[in-house]
């Protein structure tokens, strides 16, 4: 996911994470009820799990940004 974000030019925040601890906290489970990782939440609260889904979402964001730039 980090490589896909870097290749797409996306700047993502990666908070401290401890496997088996962070993904079992009430806060994490409220957003991601199955406790699965990798997990992604954007600044609007949109949340995804599964690496491929997260990478595809990131790619779709850069595609939308490029379309806006090209139309200006």
TrEMBL record:
PROSITE patterns: GST_NTER. InterPro entries: EF-GSTs (IPR050802), Glutathione_S-Trfase_N (IPR004045), Thioredoxin-like_sf (IPR036249). One of its GO terms (cellular component) is cytoplasm. It comes from the Eukaryota. Residues 1-66 form the GST N-terminal domain. GO terms for biological process: translational elongation. PANTHER family: ELONGATION FACTOR 1-GAMMA. This is GST N-terminal domain-containing protein. It comes from Pisolithus tinctorius Marx 270.
């Amino acid at each position: 996911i980090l490589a896909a974000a870097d290749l797409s030019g996306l700047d993502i925040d990666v908070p401290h994470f401890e496997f088996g601890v962070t993904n079992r906290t009430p806060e994490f489970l409220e957003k991601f009820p199955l406790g699965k990782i990798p997990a992604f939440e954007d600044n609007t609260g949109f949340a995804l799990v599964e690496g491929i889904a997260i990478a595809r979402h990131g790619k779709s964001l850069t595609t939308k940004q490029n379309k806006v730039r090209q139309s200006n």
